[in-house]
Amino acid sequence: MGLIVGVPLAGTLIFLYGWQSAFTVTAAIGVILGIIWIIVYKPKEIETHRGVRLSTVKWTDLLRNRSVIGMSIGFFSANYVNWIFITWLPDYLYKSHHLSILKSGFASGIIFTGGIVGVFLGGWLSDYLVKKGFSRTIVRKSFIVAGLVLTIPMIATVGLHSAFWTIAILVWSDFMYSVAASNYWTIMVDISGSDTIGSISSIQNGIGNFAGIVAPIITGVIISATNSFYLAFLVGTGFLIISCLSYVFIVGPAKHLKVPELKSDHTLQL
Known about the structure:
mainly alpha, Growth Hormone, Chain: A, two-stranded antiparallel ribbon, 2 strands, MFS transporter, transmembrane helix, membrane
């Protein structure tokens, strides 16, 4: 929802008052919302229980685990394209399809709306199929692979002369990407047990979000060198394929990892 509101807002502010206003206003909104949250949110008392078991699983063991490695590679590779969308989409519409800054902001908001729909639909439908008795592993991986493969048409928008069809294809691509995204987060939960979910999500998220550093830089270098988005989108397509291969061939079944049984002397008395 932040992208749907924030990108059109930033485009409007830049159009009316210059680029500095986009940073100032959005930062102020963030601070105000943070203050409201501090005032309104009241932490609930958490009931504690005796006999809470401490996890003995080491990160070194998790970092060597096939599924953890596969999910981290897959998330990084898929997230690469997500960060192209987040950081370069308005500029792409402005420079390649000659939309004004104002129109590119609102067009980006429309495109990201497709992503919101996709993430809700992908998560709900995959859970529905699992409840109907389909293999959890097949369902999760199928949604990821199908979603990422059907994101690839984004490259067809390079050189397309119709703004309408460009936006329509990009809505589709972001929709399908989000269908995959809802399931690569879900399969991480499926694979993580209660003893490892915090650690595994940290590893996947930490490695995956390096794409937020790498993708904008590589994309900018490519665009500067070629004066075109085609090669940048082609590189993104390559990362989508790597992600698919990782989830299919490296990530194991969507079931909890087996961890050593915890001994009684590893029990925390509260």
